[in-house]
Amino acid sequence: MKKSNILASLALAVGLMPSAFAGVEIAPYVSIKSTKSVTPGKNNSEKESIKQRQEYGIRASVGFWRLFKTQLSVGQSKSTTTHKTAEAVDEYGEVDFSKDFNMDTSDPENIMKLTETQRVAKFSLILDPSFSIFIARLKVGVTARQRIIEKEETGRIAEKLNEDPTYKPNSGVGLGIRFTPNMYFMAEYELYHYKFPKAEPFERELSVSYNVSI
After folding, report:
1. Burial profile 148-163: b = 16 or more Cβ within 10 angstroms, e = fewer
2. HSE-up of residue 25 (Cα within 13 Å, Cβ side)
């Protein structure tokens, strides 16, 4: 290949880079997650409850062609709840508290306290079409989650359960508004499909973030 052709090819590649690579974004976020759980009630009835937890973290994304992004986020949440030992049910259906903690259920009125820490990492593919100063968002990805659960029960030794990480799909939509070419605010509604391939149940998450391009 002639030297002039090589130089022309390099010039073309360099010329395409700014339009193909839209930059790196850093975004602190906060979210509210909610899940539904069913606990046994009196007379063979069932009681439905909704549990919420607040998560904090940071997201980093790399954009391509000003429309597509890959995003990695890490976050952590911590929640504390109290239950009667006979009514304690894991909302995800992953932990059998009675068996895994060897709970004393002889007294149904006995109270225990559960403190759960969740460490979450997500990798997502994002489509971000813009309309004037507004941004729409579609995303799909994989969530890695580790649960650390500590139990305190009257008259018994405190116990701690470290669950192995799980890997499940997530999906979501979002809407944002751009303040400057390098800064925008985004609100997102996401679903964590922890019973995949079943469509339901799933965990809902509403998050807000402030994104800065560098």
Report:
1. ebbbebeeeeeeeeeb
2. 28
Q: Which of 42, 39, 149 is nearest to 85 (CA)?
A: 39
Please provide the distance, in angstroms rounded to a whole number, between the alpha carbons at the two ends of the chain: 37
pLDDT digits (tens, 9 = 90+) for 19-77: 445 689 999 999 999 998 766 555 555 667 788 999 999 999 998 877 899 999 999 99
pLDDT at 209 over 90: yes
Contact in structure between 73 and 56 (CB atoms under 8 Å) = no
Token representation of residue 186: 């985004």
Query: Exposed/middle/buried for 110, CB within 10 Å: 0-12, 13-18, 19+?
Result: middle
Residues 6+ apart with CB under 8 A from 72: 59, 60, 61, 121, 122, 123
CA angle, residues 200, 202, 203, in degrees to nearest 5: 165
